[in-house]
Design a protein that fits this description.
Shape: globular
Strand order of the largest sheet: 1-2-3-5-7-10
Radius of gyration: 20 Å
Strand content: 5-15%
CATH superfamily of the largest domain: 2-enoyl-CoA Hydratase, Chain A, domain 1
CATH topology of the largest domain: 2-enoyl-CoA Hydratase, Chain A, domain 1
Length: 296
């Protein structure tokens, strides 16, 4: 299945005459590949001017590396990190701005929507990496497509600089990139909390990502360098999933998940698993500060 998906993604890439991304940079690629050692690899999204918004070029670059590992498993790392360059954003989502400008320039809709096929197939292919432990470093803005790239990572690290949201409903879209699957399952299946995040696009910051069950670990951004050093120092080809998580835990603040989620009881009372009409009705009939703010 993975081989089929990788082949399909390669075909889409070769057929795509319009790049959903902006003009190719002659200085650096939009995804940097960095080997911390032969067993610890890092994808670093490298378009800070667009808040590392993922585009077709990025999908093709990452796909090429996945194909390499698939064809030569002996070249694959034990750990694959994913992070964003620039400090302000991990990834602010899919680069829909370029799609908009492409449409204005008369590019065929069929060509534009190929980007979504590339993105979704890449998300799925990343989720099927069984022998490589993935670690996602959500330092900065992580929204939409950026979440989709990394949700399948068993280790998702928030920092004091993290800002999470699934803002698709604000543009009349739905929570794609798997959001309809993973949001109802956050925090041990807290459906109401996931529905609230999906419908409102509510932003979650810093340690709250761990409280909400979005991130798995919290590490202040100025401590990330120590995590990288430990991974490069201690990871071996025989490192188990538990060994790798132990390294991350040793660098994490374990108390980050302690504390109540603001307005959690009211969220559960309003955002129930019945119908959107019922949710809106309950919201409109409530006049609490939370309800009034949410209605805006």
């Amino acid at each position: 299945m993975l081989s089929h998906n990788l082949t399909r993604l390669q075909q889409l890439s070769s057929q795509l005459s319009f790049s959903a991304g902006r003009a190719f940079s002659t200085s650096e690629p939009k995804v940097l590949f960095h080997n911390h050692n032969p067993l610890v690899f890092e994808f670093k999204l490298n378009s800070p001017k667009t808040l590392n918004a993922v585009d077709s070029e990025m999908c093709r670059l990452m796909n090429s590396k996945l194909q390499e590992w698939h064809k030569n498993p002996s070249h694959a790392p034990r750990v694959a990190l994913m992070s964003g360059n620039g400090g302000k954003a991990f990834c602010a989502g899919g680069d829909i701005v370029s799609l908009y400008h492409g449409k204005k320039k008369g590019v065929e809709v069929g060509k534009l929507t190929e980007f979504f096929a590339e993105e979704y197939l890449l998300d799925y292919s990343l989720s099927q990496l069984e022998s490589i432990e993935q670690i996602s470093v959500w330092n900065g803005i992580v929204m939409g497509g950026g979440v989709g790239l990394t949700w399948h990572s068993p280790i998702r690290i928030a920092t004091d600089n993290s800002l999470f949201a699934m803002p698709e409903t604000a543009i009349g879209f739905f929570t794609d990139v798997g959001g309809g699957y993973f949001l109802p399952r956050i925090k041990n299946g807290d459906f109401g909390l996931g529905l609230y995040l999906a419908l409102t696009g509510q932003r979650v910051k810093g340690k709250d990502l761990v409280k909400y069950g979005l991130a798995t670990h919290y590490i202040p951004q100025d401590k990330l360098v120590h995590l990288y050093e430990d991974l490069a120092k201690f990871i071996t080809k025989d490192s188990s999933k538990e060994d790798i998580e132990a390294i991350v835990c040793d660098n994490s603040e374990t108390k980050a998940k302690i504390g109540a989620i603001p307005d959690h009881d009211e969220i559960k009372a309003i955002f129930k698993n019945d119908s959107i009409h019922a949710v809106i009705q309950r919201l409109e009939s409530s006049h609490t500060d939370f309800a009034n703010q949410t209605k805006k």
